Amino acid sequence: RRWWCIQARTWERGRRPGTENVALAAGFAAAARLALDSMEADSLRIAMLRDSLQEGIEGEFPEVIVNGDQAARLPHILSIAVDTDKRKLEGEMLVVNMDLKGIAVSSGSACTSGSVQPSHVLLAMGRSEPTARAALRFSFGRMNTAADVRAIISALREILRPS
Fold first, then answer.
1. SS3 for 2?
2. pTM over 0.85
């Protein structure tokens, strides 16, 4: 018994030896191949959704600032912030109200996800602390549609409607 434990650590990097799940590995390889084959078309479609959302937001909400470089960015992310010099509000209120409308968003930047501190990235971009706290990050995926963009704009219209 002791010999087996020593050998197991040597042969299996400390894990119990066993049979590899070949079917699972083959399924993962097939899924990765399918994703790679459609990646370029998906990226273009998703970028169009992101741009459509950005245009809709900029057209309706003058108090909203788009964060980040407009040319060098990922196709599936849109980061915005409410300019708190133009409109006073709490950032967490935005996240909670979007969630209540069935729309999942994140606040701040990915670097500070889950933190109560304002994003150091947004602060470095020149956003004030209250504006950095009033940021939302939208992430798009393969399953998103133009109807989702319309739903987001509609939800923002209700949440940000002048009080």
1. helix
2. no
Adjacent-strand bridge partners of 107: 136
Structure token pair of residue 39: 């990646």
Annotated catalytic residue 111: yes
Name 135's bridge partners: 81
Q: Are 43 and 75 in contact (CB under 8 A)?
A: yes
Pick the catalytic residue from 26, 100, 111, 146. 111
Structural tokens at position 45: 């479609």
pLDDT at site 144: 96
Residue 75 has, within 13 A of its CA and on its CB side, a CA count of 14
Report which of 157, 154, 110, 107 is spatially closest to residue 132, judged by C-alpha positions. Answer: 107
Confidence at 140, pLDDT banded by 50, 70, 90: very high
